[in-house]
Design a protein that fits this description.
The complex is a heterodimer of chains A (366) and B (587).
Chain A (H helix, E strand, L loop, with lengths): L8 H13 L6 H9 L3 H23 L7 H43 L6 H18 L1 H25 L17 H13 L3 H7 L7 H30 L1 H4 L5 H8 L1 E2 L3 E2 L2 H30 L9 H13 L4 H15 L1 H26 L1
Antiparallel strand pairs in A: 1-2
Chain B lengths: L1 H11 L14 H22 L16 H11 L11 H12 L7 E8 L5 E8 L5 H13 L11 H7 L6 E4 L2 H9 L3 E5 L5 E4 L29 H11 L5 E8 L5 E8 L5 H12 L9 H8 L11 E3 L2 H10 L2 E5 L5 E4 L3 H4 L4 H4 L2 H30 L7 H11 L6 H21 L2 H21 L5 H15 L4 H38 L2 E2 L2 E2 L53 H6 L1
Antiparallel strand pairs in B: 1-2, 2-4, 3-5, 4-5, 6-7, 7-9, 8-10, 9-10, 11-12
Chain lengths: 366, 587
């Protein structure tokens, strides 16, 4: 496994931020507005708090065991059979996520820019880039993210500021949207289901120690959620919550609205480069994490031979849904719905088992 | 009449094919020799089994043991490769080594040293490699001024000490070493009865004088460029860095004939591991010859299959000096007017050095212009194609109508139009470079103008495309590194192709590939996109050029021995409020 390449703080944070940003370009913000109404941005903040708690949970597992990632911990603490089962759930989760992201990103491209292009062509592009990225390694992916981050930041800022003429702050009321239950519990739960925490726990060997895990992941989540919050806020004050929940790709719709004189308008195509790039980083990173998890489970020295078969599986899975609504529904059921299993339940089990064993350990020896 | 009959006979009768070809390079001639040699080798290996000799026909220029041992059976002392006390034996050895009298470059000049009584001796040198003035002066000293030395002390040491006023002279007893020096323009003096030969420095071949840089022209700053003479080049650098800490280590590359390589670095700045790695890579090169730093570069770079250049190629001594002062290592090769500097980054390849000489605002302005032109050179045609073919909505309607109106009469698809014009531009560029002298540049400009104008009139290309290709071309010329400009030009074609196939998505794919290949690239262990990817201390001299007095530290990514460039305030006369403000006021 590739543990020799160490990521710096900035690279790792930006890599995870970009990965967690991927969902804001897709249908996710719409789903959040549907639940929380004009207070979707508050749901995002609640989700952030939940996510930070998850980070802490993983940190508790990883902290006493430097040099080991969540895969090693599962193997070690739960035993061979249960550990392997847990790790296979982790890997399947990554595979499912990569497959659905590939599909929804490709569908989004068809909707926004390339209506006549067969989806298989676009998906092939994503998967090929994912193989390339995951093959070359985490270090190059992180550096690529770091190098492109200013452009992404500039692009998003341009988009949001370009909409200033269309902002209407009245749209943000009622401030608690569809009610506290919807906003804080349902919406928070949906927004807080972030896969990057598990991903960071898999690639933790590339950080400089488990202390950095907390630092890196929490910062990345803060940044990722900041983007989401700002986007949701701008979305609501630009469209109004009622219209906002009708847009399949709100980010794209926002971009089409920009009109700053006759020359500077309809710049959504430029954003295709940004979200295409982020999509590639996301899929490549998830593929990398899936391969690393499987390699760890099967105790293989290198993850790279697994990339090709995993990519074929991801491609096949991603082409299975009939259409975009099916893919989106699958995503909300699979990724957001079941994500508490790999993100909270299984790590909690690992933590409890490791604590219990630790306590019982000295007794046995004594 | 008889002749006529002969001709008629020749016409009427069968003559056979006359053998006209005077020379055929027989393939078998070499093959047989090779087979024989390998047979012989396998036999000899069977005996001692120890030494694996080099491939047949491949002989290191320096070690002449094999050649010598063949001839030395007759010459006695030379069997050991040492100079004999008998002059005639030495002469025989030299004749055998150099293949005299066939080899006409080698001059053996017999003469008598004017001692009392006279001593026979001879000089060996290569015609054209030596300075005649030096040689005449040497002969004059030996023949005319030697009267004071009596015969019994007319040995190499006494001549060295008393008769050779020239700069460098050394006493050697090994033919291998002697030949090495003679090959590089020195003169060897063999003396009857002396078991050593004197090698006197008489290098004096023709070379260019130091001229203005050709490929890295600047308005400000020194206007000197390297030449083909290694020693002159090292001196050009040393002239700028007048420090005893500037080390020049000499290595050699090439197995058949070798070239000297000078590795220059600041001993108190350059990371010792870097210096060690540079020397390790250079000394491990196993090839028959290397004549230019461009060849050397390809042997020592980290990733030969990556498009980006991984060493910095420069012809300016001042740039080399600036890099050395950062802690980098310079590699110079005899016969090459370019130096290689390692490690390098993409940002360094986009700098010219002139920005540092200019005031920081102007320097920064230049850098920004160059940054924009870098992106234009890379992306403009690809983005145009993507926008025109797939994303028309992003173009303002008036512009779109103008483009459509211009394209109306062009029969080709846009991608063919662009490729055609790009190809023509490359053609003009290449031809302009190859056509000699002043005609070249004239043809370049005239050709481009005529070609563009005619292409529009013939409806082969639309004016927008001509402008686009011209701007792209200009932008690619503004990239200071010739190698990087090539890389950009090559990538551009991928952008054109993918932009025409998949629009902006295609552009994104190539962008992803290029970025991931570039970020994974390293030049001598330093990430290629340092200091931005990975992020390290930048030093205010990457894309923007901050005021020179703010650049107080050296770039972090080189890991120099000393990071500090200026320990305190570089502008000593500007005092901080706390310290001696009164003095400042008084002044």
């Amino acid at each position: 496994m590739e543990s020799s390449s160490k990521l710096g703080l900035a690279e790792a944070v930006v890599l995870l931020t970009m990965s967690s940003m991927a969902r804001i370009f897709l249908t996710f913000p719409r789903a959040l507005v549907e639940i929380s109404g004009p207070a979707a941005w508050l749901s995002s903040i609640t989700g952030m708090a939940l996510a930070i708690l998850q980070v802490y949970l993983f940190y508790l597992i990883l902290k006493p065991n430097p040099g080991r990632n969540i895969v090693d911990m599962a193997n070690e603490k739960l035993g061979n059979i249960a550990g392997t089962a847990v790790n296979i759930i982790f890997a399947s989760f990554f595979i499912a996520e990569a497959a659905l992201f590939t599909r929804t990103f490709s569908e989004a491209l068809i909707i926004s820019a390339l209506p006549s292009t067969p989806i298989s062509v676009l998906m092939t592009g994503y998967i090929t880039m994912a193989i390339l990225g995951a093959y070359i390694g985490l270090e190059a992916l992180a550096r690529s993210a770091r190098v492109t981050y200013p452009f992404v930041l500039f692009g998003i800022a341009l988009l949001l500021l370009g909409l200033i003429p269309k902002w209407d702050f009245q749209q943000v009321f009622p401030i608690l949207g569809n009610g506290p239950v919807n906003v804080f519990i349902k919406g928070g739960h949906l927004a807080g289901a972030v896969t990057e925490i598990l991903l960071a726990a898999v690639i933790v060997k590339s950080f400089h120690g488990p202390e950095m895990f907390f630092k890196i992941t929490s910062r990345a989540l803060l940044m990722g959620f900041a983007f989401l919050t700002v986007l949701l806020f701008v979305m609501v004050i630009t469209f109004g919550w009622n219209t906002a929940q009708e847009n399949t790709l709100p980010f794209y719709r926002l971009a089409t609205l920009i009109y700053l004189g006759r020359f500077f308008q309809r710049v959504e195509s430029v954003f295709i480069i940004i979200w295409g790039f982020i999509g590639m980083i996301k899929v490549a990173l998830t593929l990398y994490a899936a391969a690393l998890t499987l390699a760890g489970t099967l105790r293989l020295p290198d993850h790279r031979p697994l990339l090709w078969p995993l990519a074929v599986i991801i491609y096949t899975c991603s082409i299975l849904p009939h259409d975009m609504p099916t893919a989106v529904r699958l995503e909300s059921v699979l990724i957001r719905g079941v994500s508490w299993l790999p993100a909270v339940a299984l790590p909690l089990i690992i933590l409890i088992v490791s604590r219990v064993r630790k306590r019982s350990g000295p007794d046995e020896s004594g | 009449m008889k002749n006529l009959f002969k001709q008629v006979k020749q016409i009427l009768t069968y003559q056979g094919t006359p053998f006209r070809e005077g020379f055929i390079l027989e393939e078998n001639a070499f093959d047989n020799r090779e087979a024989a040699a390998s047979g012989k080798e396998s036999q000899s290996q069977g005996k001692d089994g120890k030494e694996k000799s080099a491939e047949p026909g491949r002989r290191r220029a320096r070690p002449l043991r094999k050649a010598r041992s063949e001839g030395s059976r007759e010459t006695g002392d030379a069997d050991t490769g040492k100079v004999s006390t008998i002059l005639d034996r030495n002469r025989e050895t030299i004749e055998k080594l150099y293949g005299l009298p066939v080899n006409k470059d080698i001059i053996v000049r017999d003469f008598t040293i004017g001692t009392d009584p006279p001593v026979k001796s001879f000089l060996v040198y290569i015609d054209g490699m030596i300075s005649r003035t030096d040689l005449n002066f040497l002969l004059q000293n030996l023949m005319l001024e030697a009267g004071e030395i009596s015969r019994h002390i007319a040995s190499a040491p006494s001549i060295l000490h008393r008769l050779l006023p020239g700069s460098q002279a050394r006493m050697l007893d090994s033919f291998e070493k002697i030949v090495e020096f003679v090959n590089y323009g020195d003169t060897a003096l063999f003396i009857q009865g002396s078991p050593q030969a004197l090698v006197i420095e008489t290098k004096g071949w023709e070379h260019r004088p130091v001229e203005r840089p050709n490929s890295e022209q600047t308005i400000y700053g020194p206007q000197e460029a390297f030449i083909e003479n290694l020693r002159a080049n090292t001196a050009l650098v040393r002239k700028i860095i007048r420090s005893e800490k500037l080390y020049t280590e000499m290595l050699s590359v090439g197995k058949r004939y070798y070239s000297d390589v000078a590795v220059m670095y600041m001993s108190d700045l350059a990371n010792p591991e870097l210096v060690k790695e540079v020397k390790r890579r250079i000394s491990s090169i196993n090839v028959d010859y290397v004549t230019d730093t461009g060849m050397l570069e390809q042997f020592i770079e980290d990733s030969p299959y990556n498009l980006n250049p991984q060493t910095h190629y420069t012809e300016r001594p001042d740039r080399v000096a600036a890099f050395l002062a950062e802690g980098k290592v310079a590699i110079l090769l005899s016969g090459s007017p370019f130096a290689l500097v390692v490690p390098t980054t993409m940002y360094a390849q986009l700098h010219t050095g002139e920005e540092t000489y200019l005031r920081w605002q102007y320097g920064t302005f230049l850098r920004y212009i160059r940054t924009i032109s870098f992106y234009l050179a890379l992306l403009l045609p690809g983005l145009y194609l993507a926008a025109v073919l797939y994303h028309q909505e992003m173009l303002p309607t008036d512009l779109l109508l103008a483009i459509a109106g211009n394209r109306e009469r062009v029969p080709f698809p846009t991608v063919v139009e662009i490729l055609l014009m790009e190809f023509s531009f490359e053609l003009v560029r290449e031809a302009g470079l190859r056509i000699p002298g002043i005609i070249g540049s004239t043809i370049g400009i005239v050709g481009a103008l005529l070609l563009g104008q005619a292409a529009v009139q013939a409806n082969l290309a639309s004016p927008v495309v001509i402008i686009l290709v011209a701007v792209t071309g200009l932008a690619s010329f503004s990239i200071p590194s010739y190698s990087l400009a090539f890389a950009v030009r090559t990538y551009r074609f991928f952008y054109i192709i993918m932009g025409s196939i998949l629009g902006f998505y295609g552009i994104t794919i190539v962008l992803f590939i290029q970025i991931i290949f570039t970020t994974s690239l390293k030049s001598f262990g330093v990430p290629y996109l340092s200091p931005t990817g990975p992020r390290t201390y930048a030093g205010g001299d990457v894309v923007s050029r901050l005021p020179i007095f703010m650049q107080r530290r050296r770039p972090d990514y080189i890991n120099p021995q000393d990071n500090t460039r200026a320990p305190g305030n570089p502008r000593g006369w500007v005092r901080d409020k706390g310290e001696g403000g009164g003095d400042g006021k008084q002044q």
